[in-house]
Amino acid sequence: MPKRILQGVVVSDKNDKTVVVKVERRFTHPVMKKVVRMSKKYKAHDENNVHKVGDTVLIQESAPISKDKRWVVVAQDQA
């Protein structure tokens, strides 16, 4: 099964080798028929501490790295 890749914005880089990435998704509400924005935060592994707050990054699923870290930063998005 392929690994998921998500795009998000780094909201915290205070931890060593870890960044917190906020991923936002948009969908139409089933009853209200209005576009709703929901976001979720993921802890992602950043081996060299190169990503800073505000960077747009791509994260990919991986095997568990720590108690709550299951994603790895793949690349910085150029958009």
From TrEMBL:
The keyword Ribosomal protein is annotated on this UniProt entry: yes
Database matches in Pfam families: Ribosomal_S17
UniProt family annotation: Belongs to the universal ribosomal protein uS17 family.
Molecular-function annotations in GO: rRNA binding; structural constituent of ribosome
Record function comment: One of the primary rRNA binding proteins, it binds specifically to the 5'-end of 16S ribosomal RNA.
Full protein name: Small ribosomal subunit protein uS17
Cross-referenced NCBIfam families: PRK05610.1, uS17_bact
Superkingdom of this protein's organism: Bacteria
Subunit-structure text: Part of the 30S ribosomal subunit.
Keyword Ribosomal protein: yes
Species in which this protein is naturally found: Aquamicrobium defluvii
Family matches, as PANTHER family: 40S RIBOSOMAL PROTEIN S11 FAMILY MEMBER (PTHR10744), SMALL RIBOSOMAL SUBUNIT PROTEIN US17M (PTHR10744:SF1)
A single Gene Ontology CC term: cytosolic small ribosomal subunit
Any one GO biological process: translation
